[in-house]
């Protein structure tokens, strides 16, 4: 699976069950039997890092910049991200592309 960010940059992802320390390693494909479903998550591996105070940190999916003078919460609005999801069915590779248009970012 690949994540394409708002600038068109392709990024490697990790999914549920992958230890952060193994984020650069090869991942085993998920197998989903016929008539079954899967629930998972994905995080661009570039968004995970080990901090100076010995903690794993997850950066937000979307970059966010804010200052007291200029609240720029919607600078990413109008852009698109993609998730490219390869699926093999009966030895035939299929590629599904999911596009998401960003209308704004809610910051808590």
Q: How would you describe the overall organization of this protein?
A:
This protein is an all-beta fold. 0% of the residues lie in helices and 39% in strands. The chain contains no helices and 9 strands. It has strands at 2-4, 10-15, 42-44, 48-50, 56-58, 65-66, 71-72, 80-89, 92-101. The chain has a 5-stranded antiparallel beta sheet, with no helix packed on it. A two-stranded antiparallel sheet has the order 4-5. The protein has a two-stranded antiparallel sheet with strand order 6-7. Strand 1 (2-4) and strand 2 form a beta hairpin. The mean pLDDT is 85.
What labels would you give this structure?
9 strands, two-stranded antiparallel ribbon, mainly beta
| Mean pLDDT figure | 85
Arrangement of strands in the largest sheet: 3-2-1-8-9
Shape assignment:
globular
What's the story with the biggest beta sheet?
A: 5 strands, antiparallel
| Number of DSSP E strands | 9
Spans of at least 5 consecutive residues with low confidence: none
What fraction of the residues are assigned to beta strands by DSSP?
Answer: 35-45%
Structural class designation: mainly beta
Question: N- to C-terminal separation?
Answer: 29 Å
Helix content: under 10%
- Total helices: the number is 0
Radius of gyration, in Å, reads 17 Å
The helix-strand sequence is: EEEEEEEEE
